[in-house]
Amino acid sequence: MTRRTIRIWFLIHKWSSLIPMAFLLMLCVTGLPLIFHDEIDAATESGAQAFAGHPSAQSGLPLDGLLAKALAERPGEVPLFMAFSQDDPILTITTGPTPDAAAKDMTLLLFDRSTGASLGPVPVNPVMDFLLELHTDMLLGLAGMLVLGVMGLGFVLALISGVVLYTPFMRRLRFGTVRQARSERVRRLDQHNLFGIVALAWMLVIGLTGAINAFADPLTDSWRDGELAQMTAAYAGQPPLDPARYRSIDAAMASAQAALPGRSPQFIGFPGGDWSTGHHYAIFFQGDTPLTQNLLTPALVDAATGQLTDAATMPALNQALMMSKPLHFGDYGGLPLKIVWAVLTLATIWVLWTGLLLWWKRRRGYVDRRVEEIYRSGLETAPA
Asked: How confident is the model at residue 384 (pLDDT cuts 50, 70, 90)?
């Protein structure tokens, strides 16, 4: 590379790192406990217990009866979602004052599908809920999500430019070398490069999946306004279905499973919400492995008749969104993988911190010296 090319890459690396730095450090610090959110919730829930019985996604008492119980506990509200478990008989039913209720107005109720017992509202962990909201949208809603998405893309650009700049050193120095006899700045630079290259693949995955997650709402809106609208074109212009006219959810499930045999349901979106239309139960079926369980196929069933309208795989971008969530938090490999995720998060914090110190303690002419150092490293390793 020429000196001019190196300077351009160096400036790209500098600003694509510095601009999102504060956001990235916040995301790492909040992300650490969120990696273990299942374990933390299980440890802090008072009276937590295991439930015997088939997973609620497979079998159990009729869904209509459990839905009636939930609505009896929340008089005047309407059903919004019904979520199934692949591991135990727990069924989660979400209600709200209107079909398009905001998340803050929703109530999540737990039921044991094997016995019909009501288990009350989903336990709340205010600390973890706060950390999750801070991590996903900085308490700013869609605007915060979009800002974090852009910062995630900046992080990916910083990683790519960092590899371009580090490549000459990889050829000159033995891997893992930290030049202890040199100045503090050189030692810090070597640590920055070493931790960065070790965690590179993971950081790229986390940066990309984090950016995809940040655009979840626009991607969902695009699916609803595009593919979902095409699937239900015959209903265009009709007023939303009155909740009093909703037909049997068990009949709807039977229609959907006949169209998608062998699939396991993950959740149902009731009419009027973000994940359905004003006329349909949207029953989402998942893949059969931990990694593909978030690859969803929706079956749309007319809520007034119980008849299947259509079933189709979601678009590639939406599938990428579904896949990105377990990849981002390491949810698909159990506790051992979560520990690996946590260690790599700590390594990322160190990369960010050492990079910040290198910039903060820079001296006059720092850019010129770094450009010359990288250029000479390339010359030393170039073939004769």
From this structure: very low
